[in-house]
Amino acid sequence: MTTPLTLTPSRRPDGATLLTVVGEIDMSNTGSLATAIETTEGPLVIDLTAVEYLDSAGLSVLFTHTDRIELIASPLLAPILNISGLADLTTVHGLDTPES
């Protein structure tokens, strides 16, 4: 069963705009993600640590905004962000994964 996408905007203690994303990002809900990013002015930190699934449609939305976003990612998403090349285009925090 798909986990619904929840988008929660807020401010970090340093004043930066934060968008916390929870659930699954796929082609059925990327419009909501794109709108949330596009309606936020200035630099944006996107917290993806509670994202359970991210498909190519979701990556496409993130790629469109690499000039103004930073990402916080869990070890689950690290391979996707690295292999796709997204980690080379924007700052991604949390890419260090424990040694297996």
From TrEMBL:
Domain of life: Bacteria
Short name of any one Pfam family annotated for the protein: STAS
Record-annotated STAS domain positions: 6-62
Signal sequence segment: none
Record-given protein name: Anti-sigma factor antagonist
